[in-house]
Design a protein that fits this description.
The protein is built from 7 helices and no strands. By secondary structure, the protein is an all-alpha fold. The longest helix is centred in the first third of the chain and has 32 residues.
Length: about 150
Amino acid sequence: MVELLQHAAIGSLKLSLKLIFIIVPLMVAYEFLQNSKTFKKILRTLHFVLKPLGFSEHASVSMLTGIFLGITYGSGILLAQSEKDMLTKMDITLTAVYLSMCHAVIEDTLVFMAIGGNGFYILGTRLVIATIVTFMFYRYLKGKLDKT
């Protein structure tokens, strides 16, 4: 019994260390990039990709944050932007739809790869399904939600 508990504790510690080495550098990189010209360029590029799905330019920040750092950070930025009336109802709805299916893609993919998953399939499937479903929501809601 003691051996089993010891094995479980060592396994949990190894996994925790792997998670720390994945998550902490991502968070530090985000803090440094957030106010840089590179970050703004990335936002413009992301908006180019998101525009056909119905997103406005202001939604790029919460989408980028949510996609790469997780739904908690993305929704926090989404709430802050919506309180400042920077987002339309469509932006808020589409961001919620997309991020509910596809958030923290780097972190989650690396975590699943660390335990033996295929990163290409995990990431590809999440991106494709989230994009298709979000586009379907956009087509359905277009004209039904207020654009303000």
